[in-house]
Amino acid sequence: MLLGFPVFFWEKNLPTLPGGWAAQFVPAMLVALVATLAFFAVQLRLTHDGGTHDRPGRTEDRQWLSGGALLLGLLTMTLFFTMARYASMAGVSNAVATAQDHYRKSQHVMVHSRVIVQHHAQGIRYKDLGGTAGPYRYEYIGFRLIAKSPSRYYLVSKTADCNSTKVVVLPDDDTVRVELS
Questions:
Q1: CA atoms of 97 and 131, how far apart (whole Å)
Q2: What is the C-alpha to C-alpha distance for residues 180 and 173, in angstroms, rounded to an integer?
Q3: pTM beyond cutoff 0.90
Q4: DSSP letter for each residue of 12-50
């Protein structure tokens, strides 16, 4: 079980495991399995020690109980660690799939701006509506929304893919008006 812990932190140094889910989950699941078996071994030791039970509060029993509690904590930590890894891998996988799909499921965005928006995204059409168009003189068409935080919009070009994505970050203030469709 103790040999499984370095795998949590240095699994890239173990060339014998195949890549993908096996490298991520097999070491953690082995530690969890061994911790579970060791916990049940402690329980068996406490219930079937082969001696008489004339001293129920023995120091040795308390040490075995502490070891069992430690093993339960180890099992819980391992399971949480594994679920965190799974959630991370699922998030990355979904992000890559969305990028490879050219963000087709995300919303189209038209940006109206008071100032010129500096960006390096390809495929964005720009129009200067002139001074008579009101406060939002510049119009940008061709963005897609990938995320929105309380103070920012995260946009990509509708022609972006996973290899050439440039993210444009716009503030959510009165310098821009974002139209979602």
A1: 42
A2: 16
A3: no
A4: GG-TTS-TTHHHHHHHHHHHHHHHHHHHHHHHHHHH--S
